[in-house]
Amino acid sequence: MSDLSAFPITKRWPAKHPDRLQLYSLPTPNGVKVSIMLEEIGLPYEVHLVDFNKDDQKTPEFLSLNPNGKIPAILDPDGPGGKPLPLFESGAILQYLADKTGKLLPADPARRYQTIQWLHFQKGGIGPMFGQVGFFHKFAGKDFADKRPLERYVAESKRLLDVVEAHLAGRQWIMDDEYTIADISMLGWVRNLIGFYGARDLVAFDTLKQVPAWLQRGLARPAVQRGLDIPKRP
């Protein structure tokens, strides 16, 4: 049995199955990237809820795993060389899990890097911009008298959606007919933008054709359906 006792995070979230990958997360657009990935690849894992309402992400135990205090994070008891590997940042975790299992990241070097470029596109553009739309449209920012920040982030989100719309023309997935971590990285964010954030009309989502069809295909996948609800919210 793997010994994870050297990692302080296991004091607050004890591992019932220390031989399995440990996931510390919340079902946010970033969090579900990893739960969807784990469901897709079928790698055994144990999930731990990081409750933001209790400021779990600010505790010394969680910060010992991710000093940035964000979810998701993992602790893999069977990392490189058979040694435990702690890892944070959703994009890095997706790439690590793809490399570990040989799944959902093309083996061909050129296509591999093309997939990774779209992963970075999500992390650098879609995530931050859609998140700002959520803040200024649904949360505290909606009460700001100055609407220029909202207008700026809506315009940029629409531009990013147009980029994906153009790219998906004639394609089923971001990488043609191959479903990859690039798709997984974006599905939760697009779903959140038009659903939880309530910005469907704001970004003129229904004027698009390719992105809604891609989203529907992605959300129909059983592993995606399961991953979107892991871990269960309190």
From TrEMBL:
<comment type="similarity">
    <text>Belongs to the GST superfamily.</text>
</comment>
<dbReference type="Pfam" id="PF02798">
    <property type="entry name" value="GST_N"/>
</dbReference>
<keyword id="KW-0808">Transferase</keyword>
<dbReference type="InterPro" id="IPR036282">
    <property type="entry name" value="Glutathione-S-Trfase_C_sf"/>
</dbReference>
<dbReference type="InterPro" id="IPR004046">
    <property type="entry name" value="GST_C"/>
</dbReference>
<dbReference type="Pfam" id="PF00043">
    <property type="entry name" value="GST_C"/>
</dbReference>
<feature type="domain" description="GST C-terminal">
    <location>
        <begin position="108"/>
        <end position="234"/>
    </location>
</feature>
<dbReference type="GO" id="GO:0016740">
    <property type="term" value="F:transferase activity"/>
</dbReference>
<dbReference type="InterPro" id="IPR010987">
    <property type="entry name" value="Glutathione-S-Trfase_C-like"/>
</dbReference>
<protein>
    <submittedName>
        <fullName>Glutathione S-transferase</fullName>
    </submittedName>
</protein>
<feature type="domain" description="GST N-terminal">
    <location>
        <begin position="18"/>
        <end position="105"/>
    </location>
</feature>
<dbReference type="InterPro" id="IPR036249">
    <property type="entry name" value="Thioredoxin-like_sf"/>
</dbReference>
<dbReference type="InterPro" id="IPR040079">
    <property type="entry name" value="Glutathione_S-Trfase"/>
</dbReference>
<dbReference type="InterPro" id="IPR004045">
    <property type="entry name" value="Glutathione_S-Trfase_N"/>
</dbReference>
